[in-house]
Each structure stands twice: as C-alpha cells, then as structure tokens.
Write a structure and sequence with these properties.
Blueprint lengths: L8 E4 L8 E7 L2 E6 L4 E5 L5 E6 L15 E6 L2 E6 L5 E6 L5 E6 L13 E2 L9 E5 L2 E9 L4 E8 L5 E6 L4 E8 L3 E8 L10 E10 L2 E6 L12 E4 H27 L3 E10 L4 E9 L6 E7 L19 H6 L2 H5 L5 E4 L1
Parallel strand pairs: 22-23
Antiparallel strand pairs: 1-19, 2-3, 3-4, 4-5, 6-7, 6-10, 7-8, 8-9, 11-12, 12-13, 13-14, 15-16, 16-17, 17-18, 20-21, 21-22
Length: 344
C-alpha cells in the first residue's frame, strides 16, 4: 500500500472468498446486498440477476481493532449507509436507473431514538427484519429456531385472510436479513451456520422466495467470487510481532479451557496451535476424551484472528463458554453412536 505503513510492511492477495450476503434491502426498483465483513455490495434485479458489484476497499481503510458487532447499516430513503466498527468511515451506496451501484464516503447521518431510521447491527442468528408489511394485508416474516446445537429458520407470508404460506430453511440456517417486493417476492440472506460446532466463516446465500399456490418456493443466487475486491491482509515484521504477542495473551484463555476440561474429568486433553501466526491465519484446537463416552474424541476449534488479521472473533470474544457446554450436556448431545472425532 503506497504511502502508508513502515519498512517491512507488505500486503498480500487474500485467499479465495465468496460473497457472503448479510444484509439486503430494496433501493429504487432493485435489491442491494452487503457482505458481512468485506467492503463489497451487489445489486440484483427482481429476477435475481446480479447487475453490478462494487468495492470501496480503496477508499475506506480497514478497522485497526476488532469490535462486535463489527458492522452496521442504515437505509436512508434511496440510499444505504454502511459503517465498519469501531469508528469506520461512512460509505453511502445508491443505485442508478440501470442497476449500477455508486458509493461515496463522508459524514454519517445522525439518528435519534425518535426517528424512523435505525442502525441495523450484524448478528449471528435471527433476522434483522423479522416482520415486513407488504400491503393489502399481506405480511412477510422471518423467524429463527435455536436449539442446543442447531439453528433453523423459516420465511412466511400471511395474507389478509390469515392464510399462511411457509418456507422451511433446515439447519444449519438462519435469516440475517429480509427484503420484499410487495407480496410478490422476498429476498433473504441465509447464513448456513449451526450453533455447534461453531463456524467462523459460514457459507452465506441469497434466496429469492416466491409465492406459489401450495407454499413458498426458493430460487438461489449462484455464489459470487469477490476475492479481487476484498481488503488485503497486512503482513510484515511489525504485524508478525504484534500477532505473536496477541496470540500469547489469547492462549491464557485457551489454557483456562484446558484446566476446565481436566477439572471436569476429561482424559488425554491436549492444546495444539496450527497455522501461520505471522499472518494471523491460526487455529487453536482443544481435543479431549470423556470416560463415559469411550472411543469418542472431541475437538473444540478456535480461530483467534478474523479474516482481516485482527485479534478478535474467537470463542473468547464471542462468549462461547466451554463450561456452559459441558454443564448443559452438549458433548452427550453431539456424541455419535460410533467411535470417531466430534467437533463441538
């Protein structure tokens, strides 16, 4: 990156990355979807055709620290404002008459509790828009069902007489956002993630949901490669040193989980670090066995760094408690009836 960083800094092309739709809304006569963490948005026609893809990576620097929620959006009339947290530059998106996307960086709009506009923050499960009035008494809705290990969802359309048509989204799956075109069409961002084992980079899909006499039918938008539009991860000596230090601190949490397992009577409990620490491409595996479940080896995988190489987004930061999983019977629920390795 010319003009920034110190000696020894460099940027590398990120690994292959598919567009991960997290938020969708209508702008004019089109739908616009925003990625869950990368500076990328796409516009789509009502038939589901991708019309344009835009990246603002060159004009909005990546966050320097991790925060949760990591992103928020705000629809404002015929525009959409996106901001990375904490304290990122505001990016305003709009779409022209041909469906081409444009963006500008600038001052964020003010919002007050008494105004209709609301910032929408990214969440893992549930829907950013649970209920949408579609006119003529029709109502679209999205709901998530969170079980001990699974997450499933459904999209429904209720007409003026109270008749309900539904589309079940089997586990793993939750609706993170929903947009509609009257009672004729809904577009859902579907995240294919279960509650356990935790997925740090789950597949995400765009579903076009169409009413049919017997129910609702989905049509899927094919995956879209956005690798060349993503922010590159900073590498170099100073970043490597920082990540080494950050990981050393983080492993205190991991060692605490190891002690928790031993106190719970686990056997052959081991902590292993895999990957490239200098780049932040790291996995921490905690493996163990329980005497009352012979032949089964459990693995709890953690990713302390996010895809931008920032320390954050691991099990510690998301408050995914091993103690609660043990006390709540999670390992018994996940254990198969045959020997093998079970992720949790």
């Amino acid at each position: 990156m010319e003009g920034s960083g110190s000696v020894g800094s460099r940027m590398v092309r990120p690994p292959p990355r598919a567009f991960a739709p997290w938020y969708v809304t209508r702008l004019r006569t089109y739908f616009v979807a925003v990625d869950r963490s990368q500076p990328v948005a796409v516009s789509l026609s009502v038939s589901g055709q991708v019309l344009d893809v835009v990246s603002w990576a060159a004009d909005a620097p990546a966050p320097e620290t991790w925060e949760w929620p990591n992103r928020r959006v705000l629809p404002v009339e015929d525009e959409l404002v996106v901001q990375d947290l904490p304290g990122g530059i505001g990016v305003t998106l709009d779409v022209d008459a041909d469906g081409r996307l444009r963006y500008a960086t600038g001052t964020l709009p003010e919002t007050r509790p008494d105004t209709p506009g609301r910032w929408v923050h990214r969440r893992f499960f549930g829907s950013a828009n649970r209920r949408i009035e579609a006119g003529d008494g029709h109502v679209w809705a999205a709901e998530a069902t969170v079980g001990q290990c699974s997450v499933s969802a459904r999209v429904s359309l209720t007409d003026a007489e109270g008749a309900v048509r539904e589309l079940e989204i089997p586990s793993p799956g939750s609706v993170t956002s929903l947009a509609t075109l009257g009672a004729d069409l809904a577009v859902a961002c579907v995240q294919r993630a279960a509650k356990r084992p935790w997925d740090f980079a789950p597949e995400a899909q765009l579903w076009f949901v169409l009413p049919r006499p017997a129910g609702l039918a989905p049509r899927f938008v094919p995956p879209l490669d956005i690798t060349d539009l993503c922010r590159p991860r900073p590498l170099g000596r100073e970043h490597a040193v920082r990540r080494q230090q950050e990981l050393s601190t983080y492993l205190t949490y991991s060692l605490g989980d190891l002690r928790t397992l031993r106190e719970a009577g686990a056997e052959r409990a081991e902590l292993t670090v895999h990957g490239d620490i200098a780049s932040g491409d790291v996995m921490v595996d905690l493996t163990f066995e329980m005497p009352h479940l012979p032949g089964v080896r459990f693995r709890r995988r953690d990713c302390p760094f996010d895809e931008n190489g920032l320390l954050g987004g691991g099990l510690r930061d998301l408050n995914v408690s091993l103690r609660e999983d043990l006390d709540g019977g999670l390992i018994e629920a996940l254990a198969p009836h045959r020997p093998g390795t079970v992720d949790l």
